[in-house]
Amino acid sequence: MSTFSGFGANVQFDVQPEAVVDWFIARAPDVLDLRPVEASQRLDPLRLKRRDTRIDGSDDIPFVSNVLLADLLGSSRPEIVVCDMKSGAILMGETDQPDWSLKPIGNVPFPAHAEAVDLDADGRMDLVVAALGSFSAMDHKLGSVQWLRQVDNGRFERHAIAEDLARVSDVQPADLDSDGDVDLVVAEFGWRTTGHLILLENRTEPGGKPAFVQLPIEGNHGASHAAITDLDGDGSLDILTLYSQEIETVRCYFNRKGGWTEFLDLYRAPHPAWGHSGFEVVDIDGDGDADVLLTNGDTYDNSLLKPYHGVRWLENRGGLEFVPHELVTMYGAYRAEAADMDGDGDADIVVCALAEQDNVDAQVDLSRFESLLWLEQVEPGRFVHHTLEVSRSHHPNLTLGDYDLDGDIDVFVGNGQFDDTGVPPGSSVVDIWENQLR
């Protein structure tokens, strides 16, 4: 690992790999203690009714890398947008139709994430898509940022905004320079020798096609997620970034007139095999500032579930001080989001898990463990753990939102595994857990 780009710079002494390996072997346990987590089955007052979604005319098994709830068409209810990592399809469900299904609206090579934004200011919502360029981890220049421009109601045309990039895992739109147009923050994950955090500054001429200039922010690889918020309260938008790989850090880059050179690490994991899988910037405890919700449960590095997989909350104490709290152990924890699920006025948390059964067969039976859980916030900062689902740890992503506009928050859980393990043909693409609270 000391030879990898981005890690060797942190090692200020001579490394003898054989000695390091011997040190770990001497201290390694014979087995990992992966006991089932105790949780409550009582869900009162929460009532969830699950329904399936399908791809129109297809029984293909997708790999849902992203689920987005957004009003793209200006209809009575928001649409569901799904990125399928396998086929490259960008799918949309028009939920105001009685028997809706997911239909393709575009195709992007290995799409990892999509965001809705009116990029050309023509009054129609578009999509910007982060394209990995390959599912497998490798160093290449096949990644890109793609624009699905809505040219009329429900029809989209694809245009490349940036190409010849490493594996792009996230793109976030915002007006970072306060000049009235939309810039893009790009998390270029890469692998070992490629990867950066990039700003695509909007230089579009009035009435012209969108044109962007690439400005590097950070040369580290492993940037998996980005979020934009004014963290220091100076009136300018800052960039929070989650790094995985061996860096395993939550870092904030501050928006200064001189550029993005000033940064602060809000959290650094205890070791390089932590496996961060996602984050969300959200006010967890209702005190009016931005906290960070973290998951670590990545098994794509060595196919092992680990006792320290789970969910953490970085509590914003003010003055740029963040205190980590361990909320729950969850093996393969891959995505968590916060919203008021039970209508009591505070933020609860829903978490999903992803782990390939073939890869962990020799280690543990996944049917013993949770695949979807709800953390009910019963008082500020204190959560009660409820099991929603077990034995279906094939959820790469989820999102929360009121898609039926009945006043409560529903849950959208993406399905899929890249080798088709445990996901039979014709399975639901996205599980919709409709909240019956209202």
Short précis:
This protein is mostly beta strands. It has helices spanning 17-27, 357-360, and strands at residues 48-51, 64-70, 79-84, 89-93, 103-107, 111-117, 126-131, 143-152, 155-165, 168-174, 183-188, 196-202, 212-218, 223-229, 238-243, 249-253, 263-268, 276-282, 291-296, 310-318, 321-329, 333-339, 348-353, 370-379, 382-390, 397-401, 410-414, 430-435.
Explain the overall architecture.
With 438 residues, the chain is mainly beta. 3% of the residues lie in helices and 44% in strands. The protein contains 2 helices and 28 strands. It has helices at residues 17-27, 357-360, and strands spanning 48-51, 64-70, 79-84, 89-93, 103-107, 111-117, 126-131, 143-152, 155-165, 168-174, 183-188, 196-202, 212-218, 223-229, 238-243, 249-253, 263-268, 276-282, 291-296, 310-318, 321-329, 333-339, 348-353, 370-379, 382-390, 397-401, 410-414, 430-435. It has a 4-stranded antiparallel sheet with strand order 1-28-27-26, with no helix packed on it. It has a 4-stranded antiparallel sheet with strand order 2-3-4-5, with no helix packed on it. It has a 4-stranded antiparallel sheet with strand order 6-7-8-9, with no helix packed on it. Strand 8 and strand 9 (155-165) form a beta hairpin. The longest helix has 11 residues, at 17-27. The chain starts with 16 loop residues before the first helix and ends with a strand. The mean pLDDT is 91.
